[in-house]
Every structure is written in structure tokens, then in C-alpha cells.
Design goal:
single chain, mainly alpha, Growth Hormone, Chain: A, about 80% helix, about 0% strand, Sugar_transporter_CS, transmembrane helix, transport, Major facilitator superfamily permease, transmembrane
């Protein structure tokens, strides 16, 4: 596409407003996946919900299970009702479910409301980047979509900071976990109010309304005339019936089968590399190695800060380096960090202060590699490797694999720590990262994937 001189997005008040409001969906996603990290130890107290290791897994996993279904059906709902309406509905469900979690009297109520909360979180995780992409002129797509990625880690960091502050202010008030969870409702209410004034996606308007309404929205968002024509033509082309592939066709089509397996492998790598073990259970992990409750909460803040910085740096690295090579570097670094953590945990001559310091250092190093290289690269690969004829179906399957893997790990992790000890858990995840390296070498063959896409693009 030819380069066009566009006004800076800050000069387009509607585009700037819309991009930041929509990115609040990513903030909610980050905040609610992070808030359980510090709240879990408080809600597990005998005078609260008295959670066992297995029950801790259910509380964390219930949200992720809801995310699986929220992400799975988000595309259909967004296509039928529109991006703006769905984001408004997500904020509504998020607010009500957060209130339900705050008032939960037992583990069953908490798990049910966290599952409902997961429906909105999973939907937001898919909807926000799609909505941002469709309202942004071509020159600003990456910048605006990246706002959502940054909002996710900022949301997690905000949850960690609030948990640390509340845990320090009220260390003996075990019911403080309810306040930690309730605070997540504030950005949800803000999103609910501000989303009323968002512009509808002009791409959705082309499909479901009239070209005139879409053109008016495009102009308000600062799209140049040539870009408007190109987008409308592309959407009209996509509306034409395309070749459908059944599961039997895919099974007998080697190229498509390879892409499906590649998407599945990338989804598994994204989760089995171990990122959400730290993001969901970071405070619990630090307490297990001997840190006090307050020190663990503030150690978790450091983890969140490192995660935010690494995401910013990693997004720049992906612009200029091979995605496969970055993924391999990140996974190899994970193996090194987790292996060293295993050795540290088996060493008995270190003082408690040195043990705490080394664990925190290598845990944050692991997270820097994961959030700076592995996580952004896997999401980028999933958005790039599928040809248009199968993109929506294969993306849906790959995303479902991510959330299901996330659910399994969230569910079994507390019981695993209880059964084999924290040092051996680090060793298990070091082994799973070696498996992820093997999956990368087998299925993330960039040249073969590019050749397959070119083949299908010529056919279409």
C-alpha cells in the first residue's frame, strides 16, 4: 500500500478516544487474570473460604474455562450484533460478575461467578484487538492494536500493586480479598459508560448496513479516501462465497493439516512454557520459597513491572527479527532460568535472604523472556500463518487450545506443588519448555508456511 500523509492520531480526537476506550477491554483482561494472584492466599484462610490446593486450582481455573467459551463464541456474536454493542455487553457482564465474586459465600458461588467473569474476559481478549484493527487507518493499526497488548500487562501490574497495598494496609483482615476483587469493577463501569459513545466498526457497517454509513465512519476516524475504497473492496471480496474445507478434507490435505497442527503447537507453546503459572500464582510461589506475605506481594509487583517493560521491548524486537528465532531464544532462556531455579531450590547452604533474592531474580528473568519474546511471538504467528480461506476456523481452534491449556495448568498447578514440591515443579516446566523447542523446530517452519499461504492465495 502506498504511503500516505495522515494526521497524527492525537489530532483525531475520535480515533484517540476510541482506541483508549477499547484498550480498556485489554486492561480488564489483565486485571482480572492478575487479581487472583494476591487474593488467593487470603481467601484460602480457614476463616474465609478455607481452600485446599485442589480448590485453589478450581478458583483460578473457573475463570480460564469461561475464557475458553467467551473466546470461542466472540467472533459469531461480534459479527451478528456489532463490535460496539458486544464491548458494552462485556462491560456489563464483567461488572455484575465482579459483584457476584465479591459477595460469594462459598467456593461454589465464587467458581460460578468467576466462570461468568471468564466469559467476558475471553470475549474481550478476542474483541479488543479486532475492534482496534478495524477502526484504525492502515498506518496506525500496529500502534493502536499494541495499546491492547500494553493494556493487558498494565492491568496485571495494577492488580499486583493494589493487592500489595491492600495486603500491607490490612494484613490481618483476611476478607481483604473481597476488596481486591471488587476494585476490578471500577474500570468495568468506566468502560460501560465510555463505550456508549464509541463509533461502530466501519468494516462491520460495510457488511451489515450501508456503504454510506461506513464511509461516514471512515471519514470521522481519519481514513484517507483511497484507503476507504480499498477496505470496502476487500470486505466485499471477503463476503463472496469461498471454498469450504471439512475436517475430512483437512485430514487428507497435507498442507492444511500442517497448518492446523502448527496452530495447535503454537497454542500449546504459549501456555506450556509456563507464563501463567507466574501470573496467576506468583505470590503463592514466593510464599512457598520462604518469603513473608507482604514481601511476596511486593515481589509480585516487581514481576509485573518486569513484565510490562519486557512486553514493550519485545514488541520492537518482533519488527526486525525472525519470529522463529526469537521464539527459540525465548524458550531456551526459559529452560536455563527454570533449571537454575530447580538447582537453587535443592541447595541447602544458602541463607534465606540469598534464596529469596536469587529466586526473585531468576523468576523475573524467566518472565522477561516469556513476556518479551515467547508470548508476543506466538500471538503474532497465529495472526500470520493461516491463509484467508481457513483463517477464522483455524484461529478459533488455536485460541481454544490456548485457553484449554491455560485451564488445565491453572487447575493442576496448586496440587502439583503440593505433591512434588516447588523445586520439582520448576524442573517439570523446564522439561516442558524443551518440548516446546521441539514443537517450534517441527511446526514453525517459516519458509514452508509462507509457501503454503502463497499457494492458497493464488488459488483464491
Amino acid at each position: 500500500m502506498t504511503s500516505k500523509k495522515l494526521p497524527h492520531p492525537n489530532n483525531n480526537s475520535l480515533l484517540a478516544y476510541a482506541s483508549y476506550v477499547i484498550a480498556l477491554g485489554g486492561f480488564l483482561f489483565g486485571y482480572d487474570t492478575g487479581v487472583v494472584n494476591g487474593a488467593l492466599s487470603f481467601m484460602s484462610q480457614p476463616d474465609q473460604l478455607n481452600l485446599s490446593a485442589n480448590n485453589q486450582g478450581w478458583v483460578s481455573g473457573a475463570l480460564v474455562l469461561g475464557c475458553t467459551f467467551g473466546a470461542l463464541f466472540c467472533g459469531q456474536l461480534a459479527d451478528k450484533f456489532g463490535r460496539r454493542w458486544l464491548l458494552h455487553a462485556v462491560a456489563t457482564v464483567f461488572t455484575l460478575a465482579t459483584l457476584g465474586c465479591f459477595l460469594a459465600l462459598n467456593i461454589l458461588m465464587l467458581s460460578i461467578f468467576r466462570f461468568i467473569l471468564g466469559l467476558s474476559v475471553g470475549c474481550a481478549s478476542t474483541l479488543a484487538p479486532m475492534y482496534l484493527n478495524e477502526i484504525s487507518p492502515d498506518r496506525y493499526k500496529s500502534r493502536n492494536v499494541n495499546k491492547n497488548a500494553v493494556a493487558v500487562v498494565v492491568g496485571q501490574l495494577s492488580a499486583f500493586i493494589m493487592n500489595a497495598l491492600l495486603g500491607s494496609l490490612f494484613p490481618k483482615w483476611h476478607a481483604v480479598w473481597r476488596l481486591m476483587i471488587l476494585l476490578a469493577g471500577i474500570p468495568a463501569v468506566v468502560l460501560w459508560i465510555l463505550s456508549i459513545n464509541l463509533p461502530q466498526s466501519p468494516t462491520w457497517q460495510v457488511i451489515h448496513s450501508t456503504r454510506e454509513k461506513a464511509r461516514a465512519t471512515f471519514h470521522r476516524l481519519g481514513f484517507p479516501r483511497l484507503d476507504i475504497k480499498e477496505v470496502i473492496d476487500q470486505v466485499q471480496e471477503q463476503k463472496k462465497p469461498q471454498t469450504a474445507f471439512s475436517l475430512t478434507d483437512i485430514w487428507h490435505h497435507k498442507a492444511l493439516l500442517y497448518l492446523l497442527l502448527a496452530g495447535t503447537a503454537i497454542g500449546l507453546i504459549q501456555q506450556f512454557s509456563g507464563v501463567n503459572v507466574v501470573m496467576y500464582y506468583g505470590t503463592t510461589l514466593l510464599e512457598k520459597v520462604g518469603m513473608g506475605a507482604n514481601a511476596s506481594l511486593y515481589g509480585n509487583v516487581l514481576i509485573g513491572i518486569v513484565s510490562s517493560i519486557a512486553t514493550t521491548v519485545g514488541s520492537q524486537l518482533t519488527l526486525n527479527h525472525s519470529h522463529q528465532h526469537l521464539l527459540l531464544v525465548g524458550l531456551t532462556g526459559n529452560v536455563v532460568c527454570l533449571s537454575i531455579l530447580t538447582i537453587i531450590m535443592q541447595t541447602h547452604f544458602l541463607s534465606q535472604n540469598w534464596l529469596n533474592l536469587l529466586v526473585l531474580f531468576f523468576l523475573t528473568s524467566f518472565l522477561a523472556l516469556q513476556q518479551g519474546l515467547v508470548s508476543p511471538v506466538t500471538w503474532l504467528l497465529l495472526s500470520e500463518i493461516f491463509p484467508p480461506v481457513v483463517k477464522s476456523n483455524f484461529m478459533s481452534w488455536s485460541t481454544t487450545v490456548i485457553w484449554l491449556s491455560n485451564f488445565i495448568i491453572s487447575l493442576i498447578f496448586p496440587a502439583l506443588v503440593h505433591a512434588v514440591g516447588i523445586g520439582n515443579v520448576f524442573l517439570i516446566f523446564a522439561g516442558s519448555n524443551i518440548g516446546c523447542i521441539c514443537l517450534t523446530l517441527i511446526f514453525v517452519n517459516r519458509q514452508y508456511i509462507t509457501a503454503i499461504n502463497q499457494q492458497f492465495n493464488h488459488q483464491i
